[in-house]
Amino acid sequence: MAWRPAASRTSYWCLRRLSETPGPGCAALLAVAGIRPPLTAEHLAFQLGPRINAAGRMEDAMLALDLLLADSRESADPIAQRLQEQNTERQRLTAEIVREARVEVSQLDSATAVIVMGATHWPLGVLGLAASKLVEEFYRPTFVFNTDGDEWRGSARSIEGFHLVDCLRHCAPLLRRFGGHAMAAGLTVLGDRFNEVKAGLEEYTAARLNGDAFSRPIRIEASAAFADLKPSLHHEIQLLAPFGVGNREPLLLSRAVEVTRTETFGADGRHLRVHLRDRTATAEAIAFDKGATAPHLGTGRRIDLVYALQCERWDGLDRVRLHLRDLRPADQPALVLAGA
């Protein structure tokens, strides 16, 4: 095996064991998620983790513990199926909040430095997920509240360079409770003080963020032609896994590629699939929760795109696919590569 840092070696063996000899609960969860070995860190982060986490968000976290402690597939399978259903409902509710919030955000001034909004029917368990989606889409610090009752509870997510807890400390006299860290926080406010809190958050963020802060930074490792995107390259990149905070996944750039077909998939066409070609080869790219972008990617349009490289086994063959992180019309100025 190629050399890996100590943390990566530990993760490698854990993933290998989970692939080869999963316990009954994990095996049941892998089955309902449709995951086939070998497992990757991405499977854990974006497929298994959310299903386990859905228990606490939607019902009772003990359900996830019951799954992991199950001593047989017979007892594990119905629990895994319940978690699958809860995860589907979690996705639906999160998408509903984001869809409603997007309408409100569209009415804000483009110079608005922070998103602060709420509704009585927005479930507490998915507020943080919805706030994350809104930050991803609009790249503003975002505070999302459930406004039912006298005490309004909210979740907040931030952008690079804006410390949420410092912001909440500034507004502390107006709050009942708050806590968290730089990028994520929770808070509670009395309903009759919400407008004061909103004004305080807007004042604080406006004083500390300018227009430049709302351009999402992207660090690109290298340019690549589609002919370069082979399973062997994906394997080399995965030697650096697992990726996350402190060890971000390498991103690649391909310029002036042509769109040959665009389609949506998933419930309500939530996700985006784009078929592309450059002068060397063809490629398929996907982007989750970006189905609304499809009308802007007509056949023949040329774009620059930034992506992470994925690899999946299909009919016994390894096939690479691009996980889109950003794109733009191809006639804009060149991006600056990492280290340039």
Summarize the helices and strands and which ones pair or pack.
Elements: H1 6-20, H2 24-33, H3 41-58, H4 62-69, H5 73-105, E1 115-119, H6 127-138, E2 142-146, E3 151-157, H7 164-170, E4 177-180, E5 184-190, H8 194-208, E6 222-223, H9 231-238, E7 252-265, E8 271-277, E9 282-287, E10 302-314, E11 317-329
Parallel strand pairs: 1-2, 6-7, 9-11
Antiparallel strand pairs: 2-3, 3-5, 4-5, 7-8, 7-10, 8-9, 10-11
Which range does the strand content fall in? Answer: 15-25%
Fill in the CATH topology of the largest domain: OB fold (Dihydrolipoamide Acetyltransferase, E2P)
Total strands: 11
- Helix tally equals 9
Major β-sheet strand ordering: 1-2-3-5-4
Mean pLDDT: 89
What's the story with the biggest beta sheet? 5 strands, mixed
How are helices and strands ordered from N to C? HHHHHEHEEHEEHEHEEEEE
Helix/sheet category: alpha+beta
Q: What ranges have pLDDT less than 50 throughout 5 or more consecutive residues?
A: 334-340
Could you tell me how far the N terminus lies from the C terminus, measured between alpha carbons in angstroms?
32 Å
Structural features, described:
By secondary structure, this protein is α+β, with helices and mostly antiparallel strands. The chain folds into three domains: 14-92, no CATH class; 108-214, Roll (Diaminopimelate Epimerase, Chain A, domain 1); 222-329, OB fold (Dihydrolipoamide Acetyltransferase, E2P) (Beta Barrel). The protein contains nine helices and eleven strands. A five-stranded mixed sheet has the order 1-2-3-5-4, with helices on both faces. α2 (24-33) packs across α4, α3 packs across α5 and α5 (73-105) crosses α6 (127-138). The longest helix is centred in the N-terminal third of the chain and has 33 residues, at 73-105. It starts with 5 loop residues before the first helix and ends in an 11-residue tail after the last strand. 26% of the residues are buried. Mean pLDDT is 89; it is low at 334-340.
